[in-house]
Amino acid sequence: MPVDPIEETISWQSDNPHLSGNFAPVGREIDASALEVIEGRIPEELSGAYIRNGPNPRYEPVSYNYPLEGDGMLHAVRFSGGRASYHNRYVRTRSFEIEDKAGRGVYGGIMTPRPIEPGLLGPHDDPDNPFKASAFIGVMQHGDHLLALGEVEPAWEIGPGLETLGPWTAGTDEPIALGAHNRVHPVTGDMFALSYDLISPTVRIHHIGPDGILRRSFDIALAAPSMIHDFVLTERHIVLLIGPAVFDMEAMMQGKSFLQWREQLGTRIAVMPLDGGSVKWFEAEPFFVFHFANGFERGSDIVIDYVQHEKLYVGYGKRNTMPPTLRRLVLDAASGRVRGQAWFDKVAEFPRIDDRRTALASRYVYASTLTEALTGGNGASGTFNCLLRIDTETGDVTRHDFGNRIAGEAVFIPRGESEISGWLATYLYDPETESSEFALLDAEDIEDGPVLRLRLPQRVPQGLHGAWIPA
Ligand SMILES: [Fe+2]
Questions:
Q1: Alpha-carbon span 8 to 12, nearest angstrom
Q2: 252: enclosing H helix or E strand
Q3: How many CA atoms within 13 Å lie on the side-chain side of 39?
Q4: Which structural domain, as residue segments, surrounds residue 392?
Q5: What local confidence, expressed as pLDDT, does residue 44 receive?
Q6: Can you state the percent helix, strand and coil of the chain, rounding each to 5?
Q7: DSSP string, 29-65
């Protein structure tokens, strides 16, 4: 049932760099029509919505580890007939309702979870579950279902006005736990989703039909309960890169972090047929992957474009010596060998492609990087100001530097049939004016900068992943 938009602003401030500057949350849910064009023109043929999710804690968190916590907030720019509108809404998960009732933050955070006071819980809440589930990472459409996604928690179904409809069940009797990144098979339209476990050393793969009904689920045994943020779908396989980021209940009981880096485990790579057949394992040096651009089969090889992190760090203050870089990995199924190459040697994250190429051979990867032209902002990790396009056939890197403006992940919006025929959508933030814009670039000519800039009626905090939802 639709509820009234929240009109209160955020009443607290934090010194945490991931909760200040453009990482600071916004409180108001607003609707604005006829957005002002600052530059360019709105393509008449653009019909649909660019929707982006991100962590936007409503109440001051008890503890905060970016990018693993926060309340989900969806920001949408909707296009129709050469006009654009904006609206934003919280994802009203059960955890959101519990904190709404308390009027303050009550969750201890993923590193230091603590029990929720019984008086705040309802009859269907698990008193033993201390984890906040707030669907703040991603958003995707599957069939008729628009879903807000978090990290291994129920997916929340979202209505056309961004209202939260309830937990998604995928045709089953109970909410289905999904990860933030799920992939749809280009031929069958089946969705494959990954759900790892914080306690047990397994990861579960869900196979959901194009109709949104769960077909089957199967488990893969791991060495330890592991954090796996994203995975690779090819035409015939699912590929998991399992870095040594493990959940350790005993360590937590001793007052240490729940999430531990166990280098000695290395990174193990699982290649599994889509029907759940036996898994083939590859071994690699320890590294961590948050995000894959794409993966595909080439003969007996599996080719994967992704961002490699030296080690998993969350929160602020700790940094790897090497920046996360955009790379290609080739798994040679015949010999069991793993080969790698770098596409770009400076920091990069948020890799995306033309989603129509998911699991198929793809040539172009888009990603974000950081240049010295950004003089504002607070230096927190996850801050970027430059968009890259990597041509994986030639190795050419084309870029647009937004200068002293912070740019988010770029989402590809198809225009024509070819892989490069489309636009890239993102939100921009100007630290001088503390205001946000929506920008659209032509994927063929990203170096020319935005073909459209729209003024937004409020600041859009730095967020995570978005999607283009055609009308
Ligand atoms: Fe992600």
A1: 12
A2: helix 249-253
A3: 11
A4: 17-470
A5: 96
A6: 5, 40, 55
A7: --EE-SPPEEEE---TT--EEEEE--B--SS--SS--
Residue 398's CATH number: 2.130.10.10
Residue with the two structure tokens 């998911």: 358
CA 271–ligand 1 middle distance (angstroms): 21
Question: What integer pLDDT is reported at residue 455 of this predicted model?
Answer: 98
Q: 36 C-alpha to center of ligand 1: Å?
A: 31
Ligand 1 centroid – CA 265 distance (Å): 23
HSE value, Cβ hemisphere, 13 Å, CA-based, for 22: 33
Ligand 1 center from residue 350 Cα (angstroms): 8
Residue at 417 is within a domain:
yes
DSSP 8-state secondary structure symbol assigned to residue 226: B
Q: What is the Å distance from ligand 1's center to 290 Cα? A: 6
Q: How far is the CA of 466 from the centre of ligand 1 (A)?
A: 10
**Residue range 194-204: average pLDDT?**
94
C-alpha to C-alpha distances, 427 to 318, 405, 465, nearest whole angstrom? 27, 10, 11
For residues 405 and 38, the answer to whether their CB atoms sit within 8 Å is no
The pair of three-digit structure tokens given for residue 165, joined into one six-digit string: 């409809």
29, part of any domain? yes
Distance 463 CA to ligand 1 centre (A): 10
Is residue 276 a part of any domain in this protein? yes
130-154 residue pLDDT tens:
989 999 999 999 999 999 999 989 9
Ligand 1 centroid – CA 217 distance (Å): 22
Domain count, the chain: 1
Residue 189 in domain: yes
Query: For the chain, what percent of residues have pLDDT higher than 70?
Result: 98
The structure tokens listed for 133 are 């589930």
Closest alpha carbon to 410 in 357, 344, 456, 463: 463
Quote the radius of gyration of the chain (alpha carbons, Å): 21
| Residue located via tokens 């089946």 | 190
Q: Please count the residues of the chain.
A: 471
Q: Which amino acid is at 25?
A: P
CA of 37 to the centre of ligand 1 (A): 30
Rounded distance, CA 68 to CA 314, Å?
A: 8
Question: What distance in Å separates the CA atoms of residue 314 and residue 331, rounded to the nearest whole number?
Answer: 28
Name 441's bridge partners.
424, 450
